[in-house]
Design brief:
Immunoglobulin-like, 3 domains, 2 helices, 6-stranded mixed β-sheet, 5-stranded antiparallel β-sheet, 17 strands, mainly beta, 316 residues
Length: 316
Amino acid sequence: MFKNIKYILFTSIVISSLLLSACGADNSQDSAIQTAVAQTVAAQNAQQAANTETPSAPPTALPLLPTAIATPFAAVASPTTPVNPSKSECAKASLVSETIPDGTIYNPGDVFTKTWQITNTSNCVWDTSYKIVFWSGDILGGAYVYNIPQVTGPGATLPVSLVLTAPAVDGTYRSEWALQTPDDIAFGVGMYSEPFYTTIVVSSSAKPAYDVISVDYEVVRNPATGCPLNTRYKVFATITTNGPLEYTYQWQQSDGNSQDGKGTIKMTEAGSKTISREWMIQVGNSTNDRWMSITILAPVFKEFPPAIISYDCTKP
């Protein structure tokens, strides 16, 4: 823009000079005119320099805000160092005993406490971060997860007690449970790590079918080994009912001797009662296997498989 103004002024001065020359101006006037032109051009250059805008410096960049970095809940470990070492070696247990026989009869809505005595057969200490978890079947009104109630060291026995409720509908129900390590390895009891469970029967009948539901035997030899003239065998019979029941039983033997083998037991609730009977076997007698068994005479006649007695003459 300033270049155009300079050009216009210069052109005007030149034209004026020519006009004066044409009119016969003298040399002094020419000199004055040239001086004026030069001064005008110099002034214009100075004005242009003064009015020329100085380029602005590039704006200073604003500092960037620091980027937020999320803090992980746990440091990421290298592939060779797991964050939470496996507790699979701690997942070993055995079932010692339990309350409430399987097949116990309840009325709809009855509340009961089932207890399993479970031994820690691992080399680990189970702290209270170990859990009892529902596995399958019917939950029977319980929760899905419980913390174990106490610290249990290797070889110690843990009582696992759950408060459960009989369903409202008649039927047979099975509820299976397991233990769980802190790193979520579920395990059961025994060689095959099977879940521990309870089985109940719900009956709304005014007269439930209470009965003897099982007989289990244990045979003890005295002496345990050797070939004495007389060997005594003691048979322990554990009789289990599914509710309050009075029953009459009779011992039976393979030689037909049932003398003094009769008795009556009254159970106030579902449970077990253990009785025993002894049989002495002489060396001169047959070495064939013998047996003893329990027969329920009343209220309902019922026979159960026998306990086998094998005469074993083993020299020490």
